[in-house]
Specification:
This is Prophage LambdaSa04, DNA primase, P4 family. This protein is mainly α. Helices cover 70% and strands 0% of the residues. The chain is rod-shaped.
């Protein structure tokens, strides 16, 4: 809006989208690192956590660890 009417600007719209995507990526990265940290704090080696897969699933044995892999995978 320029004060009198709406003015469309394709470059401005693309810039806004890119800024939003950068914010989403930053938030996802923070959630991913947080999930890794939480899994490591439960006693699982960080290398296994970062690999993920069946090796990680095999090490999940306590009730407090059960929800963490889902959080890790959703953040990944």
């Amino acid at each position: 809006f320029n004060g009198k009417y709406w003015k469309e600007d394709k470059q401005l719209a693309i810039g806004t989208i890119l800024e939003f995507m950068d914010l989403q990526l930053e938030e996802a990265s923070e959630q991913y690192e947080s999930a890794i940290k939480q899994l490591v704090q439960t006693g699982i080696p960080e290398s296994i956590v970062r690999e993920g897969g069946k090796g990680l699933v095999k090490l999940i044995d306590s009730p407090n660890q059960q929800p963490l892999p889902a959080k890790y995978l959703s953040a990944k």
